[in-house]
Amino acid sequence: MNKAVSLVAILSIVSILLVLPFAVRGASAQLYIDPALVEKHPADVGTTFTVSVKVQDIADLFGFDITITWDNTLITFSSLDITPLNTIWPQGFFEPLPGYQTGAGSVRYAAVATGGNGFTGSGTLFKITFTVASATPGQTLMHFGCWLSDSLGNPITHTNTDGTYKMLAQPQLPVGGEWAPINSWPLIAPWIMIALIAASALGGVHIKYRKGKQ
């Protein structure tokens, strides 16, 4: 009886030791947007910027379904680039949905590896390009809604870190109004001419005075 109990205990410990590394690694996995903060100025309205959707310290990533939402009055969707997935899954992948799905302030993309092993490590899943839509100061999260799975179809425990977009206020002018360099020559030129004429006139009077003295 004691031997049986000891065997069960040993097997339990071994099972925990085998599962623990994967549990810890799964718990430390992250899904995030890079760069975490994008700041723009009113002059940037109409221009575009690109952020990357990345994973870090993930184990056996075999599929995902990711939705990102934002305030569509500040930024609008422009395009989505999935070419980084060729590095994540060199064996190939397929899209269970017909491409990416877009709405007013949202984009959804899903992909699944076609075989082989899931991805382990850190890398970029895809990239999103936005257009700056408004000069009104404000900010919005680029917020995750997602599902990640391993090669057995089990969900992968991970942490989501949203990105932030911010439209900065118009820079304030210094007290006293706008400073600008001034070309002072047009202002002082007339006074220089008056001084020259006066000097010339005084010189003439002085000459006549000397002649009169003679």
List keywords for this structure.
214 residues, alpha+beta, Immunoglobulin-like, 7-stranded mixed β-sheet, 12 strands, 28% helix, elongated, disordered N terminus
Short précis:
With 214 residues, this protein is an alpha+beta fold. The chain has helices spanning 2-28, 85-88, 185-213, and strands spanning 30-34, 37-40, 48-61, 63-69, 75-81, 93-94, 101-103, 106-113, 119-132, 138-149, 159-161, 163-167. The chain starts with a helix and ends with a helix.
Description:
This protein is α+β, with helices and mostly antiparallel strands. It has a single domain (2-167), classed as Immunoglobulin-like. The chain is built from three helices and twelve strands; from the N terminus they run αβββββαβββββββα. It has helices at 2-28, 85-88, 185-213, and strands at residues 30-34, 37-40, 48-61, 63-69, 75-81, 93-94, 101-103, 106-113, 119-132, 138-149, 159-161, 163-167. Strands 2, 4, 6, 7, 8, 10 and 12 form a seven-stranded mixed sheet that branches. A five-stranded mixed sheet has the order 5-9-3-1-11. 16% of the residues are buried.
